[in-house]
């Protein structure tokens, strides 16, 4: 039986690609399959200054936040209150709060910090498939704020990719919050409208791959258990595709790539397929109006294949007072790839948002 008629083999190959993920971009990594073991070995053999990092092991005080549809969401609180500002971090698609490792490690003090796992990601529970929407994530964020931010505290919201979309969904539903309490917003590698993404490939090929994503996702949803098994088996391909689509053109620590790959592989494939339609249809540029008078930071790597730099440029154009930081050579996981550049930009935002409260935090 050929590979094209063997559904088990086909699912295993597709699954390995999905783990590289941001899982939507399978066709782009097939050329790496032949040399994958040799390439991965070469990467892993390099001296790695990040090998001792405690990825996934930085923890705060656990909180359970119940969403408006009854789903338990996992949040963690770091630091102490009393400064008048709480910082809330929202992670991206197929990741978890652990993607903020370097921000959690380095941006300490100065107030309460809240890290939470979006529904069906990390340690948060899953809801009904029809609730896997950006609108629901915005409502979830509102509940997280209610449960973890003390009354009277200003709020600084930091979102990466889908986390930025979550912030815009909150702004669309609760614009008054951005007038009364939100003192700052950071949108990192995010977008107000997800369309015309080419995955860093020539435009015609990139759009063709994008158009094939929806049927590809439906195929994956057909046998999620088999696909998840394939993701574990195709470890080298998973690592390579995580490197290719998560990061830019510079040298990246193997430990950092492995940390991303671990988060991706821990996200079940049916969660990935459930959330894809709402991400593909995301269009909330008008919600940026709620941020017009809020100190805002826009950050993107100029080698981001998932939400290319022109998406961040569009946000910056809609918010002319926003600080726009372009990180040369960086990819989609810019806050993991170039943490110093991102942290410096966040320090500036925090200073703009509430100088007296965070002056000593950074």
From TrEMBL:
One of the Pfam families matching this protein, by short name: Abhydrolase_1
AB hydrolase-1 domain segment(s): 86-337
Leader sequence residues: none
Cross-referenced SUPFAM superfamilies: alpha/beta-Hydrolases
InterPro entries hit by this protein: AB_hydrolase_1 (IPR000073), AB_hydrolase_fold (IPR029058)
Transmembrane domains' residue ranges: none
One annotated GO molecular function: catalytic activity
Annotated PANTHER family: ALPHA_BETA-HYDROLASES SUPERFAMILY PROTEIN (PTHR43689:SF8), HYDROLASE (PTHR43689)
Name under which the protein is recorded: Pimeloyl-ACP methyl ester carboxylesterase
Organism: Actinorugispora endophytica
Lineage: Bacteria, Bacillati, Actinomycetota, Actinomycetes, Streptosporangiales
